[in-house]
């Protein structure tokens, strides 16, 4: 399901949640719901939306200033060159093809992408990776890990040489932490990947 409406016209999360709020709270007219961040369509996991414009503004500022902590897990092909490291690349998006590539610093429209990863386990030619995201660039995790020689399981776009059509992308947003926009207390939400292939290969590490 896309985060918001796109050219496919498939049901999107933002519209579904607005309809749910309208029904659940018996609200007349339009319902406000602020989109704070996105997940790529094939990616699952936890997200946050804002029910007021004030909350949306403050949460968006937390995203911009890197005070909204995002944690992911991914299953990748191969094994990273180091058990843990910080990946730093410059990425450029081609809006015509909706693809992202690694480029040299200073190229037009290039944006810095930073993440930390940690190897959790390896088995059957696959590895489970814990990822702490510091920037929120389009397709960032998929592109950066592919650039290290470890494309994500199921990623047809950035790992077509090792993935088969129909496989589901193995990337999951497992934890989101931020300060409540008005109460100023820390909130932390978690979501686990489904117990299916390839996640269940790493059941000991995940569940």
From TrEMBL:
Family statement drawn from the similarity comment of this UniProt entry: Belongs to the pseudouridine synthase RluA family.
Organism: Paenibacillus sedimenti
Keyword Lyase attached: no
Entries under SUPFAM superfamilies matching the protein: Pseudouridine synthase (SSF55120)
InterPro entries, per the entry: PsdUridine_synth_cat_dom_sf, PsdUridine_synth_RsuA/RluA, RluA_PseudoU_synthase
GO terms, biological process: pseudouridine synthesis; RNA processing
Catalytic activity of the protein: a uridine in RNA = a pseudouridine in RNA
Any Pfam family hit: PseudoU_synth_2
Keywords, ordered alphabetically: Isomerase
The name this protein goes by in its record: RNA pseudouridylate synthase
MF terms in GO: catalytic activity, acting on RNA; pseudouridine synthase activity; RNA binding
